[in-house]
Amino acid sequence: MxxxxxxxxxxxxxxxxxxxxxxxxFYEPLGISTFPDFGIDKKIGVEVRRLNRNHIYENExxxxxxxxxxxxxxxNKILNSIKQDGKATYFIDFKIKKSNAIIYxxxxxxxxxxxxxxxxxNSNSHNIDENLNMIxxxxxxxxxxxxxxxxxxxxxxxxxxxxxxxxxxxxNDKQKKIDALKNKTIFNEYWLVLIDYLFQDNLTEYExxxxxxxxxxxxxxxxxINQNISIKIIKEQI
Length: 238
Hints:
Blueprint: H1 8-19, E1 25-27, E2 38-40, E3 44-51, H2 64-80, E4 90-96, H3 112-118, E5 125-127, E6 132-138, E7 147-153, H4 156-179, E8 189-196, E9 218-225, E10 228-236
Parallel strand pairs: 3-8, 4-7, 8-9
Antiparallel strand pairs: 1-2, 2-3, 4-6, 5-6, 9-10
């Protein structure tokens, strides 16, 4: 086994496979830079892929970092148009409340200006409309501006939804490698191991039952948390 030729992700997977007790693990069994990355006992083909953000889906809200940078100027323009009528300044966090229906980006802040003009600043949580919640945090110092933008936050279930879509994207992408094989039966089964670069959590809070595993008998997710490795078999065909 030429470990010096492996990428970092492949080394992690090789250590994982070795920990399962497999002895005959072959790196790139069908040739250099070919699918799959590993062969086990000439029975199991194991492919490795990074799990990262692959694309933004049409008409859906992008991840939080993109939202904050994309709408910062638009939001500040609205906030700056509201005249200071007292001495206090309020920082604003926006929370998107739902993701199970398509939310069109252009309509996110359509009601913000009219709402701010009459909102009760004594209340800290405000439902601007069915899609957007606003949290007001009173500043400890006075400012000539009444409102200052802080951040846009996404609900956990929206993050989970995007997370699952990115996993499915990886499965679909690697399924093409299986389809391209001249002889699919060269291995009895195929595993896909995803190295998670999206979230640093313990992998216990997600529901993976909706995933379509295609021709992969096992989908394995490996996440490095504070130098510790968390491993979860997220889907397994029995």
